[in-house]
Amino acid sequence: MDTLICKDNLPSSSTSTTTTSDRTLDSSNGSESFEGPEKLLEIWFEPSPNCIIKDNSSTNIGLRSIERGVWDDMLNIVKCKIINMIENDHVDAYLLSESSMFVYQHKIILKTCGTTTLLAAIPRLLKIASEHCQFHKVWRAFYSRKSFMFPERQSHPHNNWKDEVAYLEQLFDNGSAYTVGRVNGDHWFLYLTSPPNDITSEDDSSQLRHRAASDVNMENQCDLDDQTVEVLMTELSPKMMKKFYCKNMDNDSGTEGGARVDRETGLKNLYPSAKLDSFLFKPCGYSANGLLEDSYFTIHVTPELSCSYASFETNIPLVHGTISEIIHQLIAIFEPGKFIVTVFKTQGCNVDKKHLVNSLSNVTGYVRKDRILYDFDGYDLVFGHFEKRNK
After folding, report:
1. Domain 227-388 falls under CATH 3.40.50.720
2. Per-residue model confidence as pLDDT tens digits over 104-128
3. 158 carries an active-site annotation
4. Architecture of domain 39-193
5. What is the rounded distance in angstroms from the CA atom of residue 330 to the CA atom of residue 311?
6. Active-site entry in 27, 33, 99, 147
């Protein structure tokens, strides 16, 4: 059964008017530790931007046509706000008070940390897509997160994975939920849906869109070549984390402080030709979005000793050696005691599965605790968990 977007089948959601998180653009919360691990939501309304019909002016009617105020209102429910934005011909990249949002014409990626209520915003998001873009069905949806450091501080439905899955099951059809890794150690949760079996629709515009969508190979999705890499790091080096604190509260925060961190840490060298938008919070904490053609990368750092955490995520296409190179660059910058790597990609595309597995075999100075390969509906997942040697 297709996931139809209509008012009657959406759980109710809060319409909170709060526009800032508990930390109010500040990663330090007094003596209280901050929850760095993010909740990551990705919703595809079409397999490709080419599947979106055009209006009478030959303009694509996609998510990028939605006005900023509409996104602001949706993010109020999540309990975060937009602090900066960059764009190119393919994607809008929003830097948030609690991580990032990427808006393509046909899909949206929303990543939030702390005690944000990400899932509560899905009903509003689906309504926005339906009313503004005539996206009346969801093609695929993905939700994932690392195990929380402080799960007791989360609000429903984020208190536990079972409640999150139950909430998602109210919204989407053809969903499956997984726990990847050791439940008595660092692990990773994933919920994903399969594409709808029926690509027809009642209204003519949807028929045109979904007829175009049928030209995409939905069985193996090779034409999509969708790839996402995450590196999630904990127990970071206190010495290295000093670089993610403001040196001067008056002029070393915001975008100027972010640019200073980029230079001093070497983060700007991960993808030197990318368009970079970075931000340093008061008194500490760092976020950055980067755009490279039709791809993005994003980095978020919680440097406090009691809850140190850093994440890196990208959908920039993989090439041989890229994963190992990126991992070693990140390790040199953050010196984590532990880290998780996930590589999530469509099957049959230009990245060899065996190469991915081998690339997560050995990392200098670290012991591999887990290496797991999953075969999902149209996607492969490679998961690796590493701990510092002689820790």
Report:
1. no
2. 999 999 999 888 999 999 999 999 9
3. no
4. 4-Layer Sandwich (3.60)
5. 10
6. 99
